[in-house]
């Protein structure tokens, strides 16, 4: 039965990632599932009156989302079970004046977003998706999500005959060498705004698009997510970091009980530091908590009884590069979720939050692992330390072990996401303040 459950979960995960080429699409897809499950959509411009026993969600910038189940137990006694992830992934984003003609080809100028593995973008079938803002019939700008879906661009490698050092000493200049080809130039080619206008009207035949005013568009690999390996041991996909964690949190939230209050927050802009109105370093979560519990004393009491699980993928030990890992902390794919530890607070895990997570893993029958970076290598970070310091909630950093993080096609174990989901569900169901688990 568990194998069938794992397969069903993974199918949903793969479909979610495939339908979410940008943070905007991921947020819209999560919102649609929440609405279908009976969650009430909140508008930040409205006055709120949240009621126990009901479920809500709110978005900001169309790219970050908070979902909340208001449990029947008092918030100041049992707190809020929080689960956090991020919607963005490293990618190539179009510059405002992206369209140019060079050597007979139409190319797109792009900006590298986050710490992308640039070499993995070459020789891929690329499409374009994101948000377009335009002028319609009125004077108020309108925005709509688009996704060309089909391969419309490519970034060909230079042949080995023209670069004999490519296999020994290859570096990539993002300004000069990361210019995807869109089409062969000719007398009838259109500018980018014309192409976007056509795509908007293809998506909605009734749309009136008088002028394109702006856009936030990304390139993405059209290669679909898949289960791979001789025994289908692995999930291969773009954006596993960190849509996998978003889906885990969403799945747990959709199945959360009505007794314990639970919260899911998926922020944009983690890959570039989280410093935005909708990022973890911004006030989105704090604003939500202030409106949920206006009284400062009650809110601080509730936060003291609360806990945050920050879920973001972890580095699995690579068999070809074992020297890149600490010998005692090398997580394995399909070895269970990973507790991430860093004494310099790049991760927010404490001995107490780690202990609580281990207890939950034990109850769910899920194995658990630990990750610590080599002492002579710099460590990455997550929304965990940011949320912990901004909101003042005890926090744990965990993640699913992954290969090729920030590649256009990452690799995770086919058992691990479902394992983390089972632990997240147990976490949401536990009606007791953190540190007081029965």
- Order of helix and strand elements from N to C terminus: HHEEEHEEEEEEHEEEHEHHEEEHEHEEEH
Output the strand order for the largest sheet: 1-2-3-13-4-14-18-16-17
In CATH, the architecture of the largest domain is: 3-Layer(aba) Sandwich
Tell the overall outline: globular
CATH superfamily of the largest domain: Zn peptidases
CATH class of the largest domain: Alpha Beta
Number of domains: 2
Mean pLDDT: 94
Number of separate strands: 20
Helical segment tally? 10
**Would you tell me which CATH topology of the largest domain applies?**
Aminopeptidase
Distance between the termini: 28 Å
Largest sheet, strands/sense/barrel: 9 strands, mixed
β-strand percent reads 25-35%
Helix content: 25-40%
| Unreliable spans | none
What structural category arises from helix and sheet content? alpha/beta
Based on CA atoms alone, the radius of gyration comes out at 22 Å
GO molecular function: aminopeptidase activity
Family: Belongs to the peptidase M18 family.
Protein name: M18 family aminopeptidase
Pfam family, one: Peptidase_M18
Tell me what you see in this structure.
It contains ten helices and 20 strands. The protein has 438 residues and is α/β, with parallel strands linked by helices. It folds into two domains: 2-89 and 238-429, Aminopeptidase (3-Layer(aba) Sandwich); 91-221, Aminopeptidase i, Domain 2 (Roll). The protein has a nine-stranded mixed β-sheet, sandwiched between helices. A six-stranded antiparallel β-sheet has the order 8-7-10-5-6-9, sandwiched between helices. Strand 16, helix 8 and strand 17 (369-371) form a beta-alpha-beta unit. Helix 2 packs parallel to helix 5 (240-254). The longest helix is centred in the N-terminal third of the chain and has 17 residues, at 2-18. It is globular and about 70 Å long. The two termini are 28 Å apart.
């Amino acid at each position: 039965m568990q194998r069938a459950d794992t397969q069903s979960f993974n199918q949903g995960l793969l479909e979610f990632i495939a339908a979410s080429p940008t943070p905007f699409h991921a947020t819209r897809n999560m919102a649609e599932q929440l609405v279908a499950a009976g969650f009430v959509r909140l508008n930040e411009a409205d006055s709120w009156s949240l009621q126990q026993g009901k479920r809500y969600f709110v978005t900001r910038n169309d790219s970050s989302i908070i979902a909340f189940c208001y449990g029947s137990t008092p918030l100041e006694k049992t707190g809020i079970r929080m689960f956090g992830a991020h919607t963005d992934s490293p990618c190539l984003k179009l510059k405002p004046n992206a369209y140019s003609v060079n050597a007979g080809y139409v190319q797109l100028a792009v900006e590298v977003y986050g710490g992308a593995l640039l070499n993995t973008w070459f020789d891929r079938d690329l499409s374009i998706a994101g948000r377009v803002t335009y002028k319609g019939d009125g004077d108020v700008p309108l925005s709509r999500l688009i996704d060309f879906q089909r391969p419309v661009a490519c970034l060909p490698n230079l042949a080995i005959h023209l670069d004999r050092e490519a296999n020994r000493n290859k570096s990539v200049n993002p300004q000069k060498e990361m210019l995807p080809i869109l089409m062969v130039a000719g007398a009838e080619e259109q500018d980018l705004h014309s192409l976007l206008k056509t795509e908007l009207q293809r998506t909605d035949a009734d749309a009136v698009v008088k002028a394109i005013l702006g856009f936030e568009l990304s390139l993405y690999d059209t290669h679909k997510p898949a289960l791979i390996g001789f025994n289908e041991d692995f999930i291969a996909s773009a954006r596993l970091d960190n849509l996998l964690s978003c889906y885990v949190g969403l799945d747990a939230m959709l199945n959360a009980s009505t007794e314990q209050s639970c919260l899911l927050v998926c922020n944009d802009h983690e890959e570039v530091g989280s410093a935005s109105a909708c990022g973890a370093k911004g006030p989105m979560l704090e604003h939500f908590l202030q409106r949920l519990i206006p009284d400062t004393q009650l809110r601080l009491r509730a936060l003291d009884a609360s806990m945050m699980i920050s879920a973001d993928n972890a580095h699995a030990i690579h068999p070809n590069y074992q020297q890149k890992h600490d010998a005692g902390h090398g997580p394995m794919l399909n070895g269970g979720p990973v507790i991430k530890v860093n004494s310099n607070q790049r991760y927010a895990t404490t001995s107490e939050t780690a202990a609580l997570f281990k207890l939950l893993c034990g109850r769910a029958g899920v194995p658990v692992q630990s990750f610590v970076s080599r002492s002579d290598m710099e460590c990455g970070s997550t929304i965990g330390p940011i949320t912990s310091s901004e909101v003042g909630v005890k926090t744990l950093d965990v993640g699913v072990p992954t290969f090729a993080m920030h590649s256009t096609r990452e690799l995770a174990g086919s058992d691990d996401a479902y394992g983390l989901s089972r632990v997240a569900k147990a976490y949401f169901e536990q009606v007791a303040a953190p540190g007081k688990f029965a």
